[in-house]
Write a structure and sequence with these properties.
The protein contains two helices and ten strands; from the N terminus they run E-E-E-E-H-E-E-E-E-H-E-E. Strand 5 and strand 6 form a beta hairpin. It has about 130 residues and is α+β, with helices and mostly antiparallel strands. The chain is globular and about 40 Å long. The longest helix has 14 residues.
């Protein structure tokens, strides 16, 4: 983040419902109930093009994680989790390699779970 500007981690978002079991979204597509291969192709495209992103949303969020999203950053791939509370969703993130990102998305796609959530930190937003 820019050290000259104040930031906050107190930003939350409105909870949203997923109308299908799973949805993958990029700049180009929004596909309901995608196969793991389709999600993997979206991620591989994101790895090639720095302005791409991938969002995977699930209807069943047993750990409160409604979606995960990823994009390239200077130091690797940032993976962000949308964690739902009673009234709002907060965003946490961690930086990974491409291989680790694939593993996280595959697990979430297949089980709606993400391991080691406690290692993620709140996303900082400019005030």
């Amino acid at each position: 983040m820019n050290q000259n500007k104040e930031t906050t981690t107190e930003i939350t978002f409105k909870n949203t419902a997923c109308t299908s079991n799973c949805t993958v979204r990029t700049q180009e597509i929004e596909e309901q109930n995608p196969s793991w291969n389709m999600v993997k192709e979206c991620l591989q495209t994101m790895f090639e093009y720095e302005d791409e992103f991938v969002v995977l949303t699930v209807a069943d969020a047993p750990d409160g994680i409604r979606f995960i999203q990823a994009a390239q950053i200077k130091d690797g791939i940032t993976v962000q989790l949308g964690i739902e509370g009673i009234t709002s969703t907060r965003l946490v993130e961690k930086t990974y390699t491409e291989e680790e990102c694939l593993e996280i998305f595959q697990e979430f796609c297949q089980s709606s779970h993400v391991q080691n959530i406690e290692e993620y930190h709140p996303v900082e937003f400019m005030k």
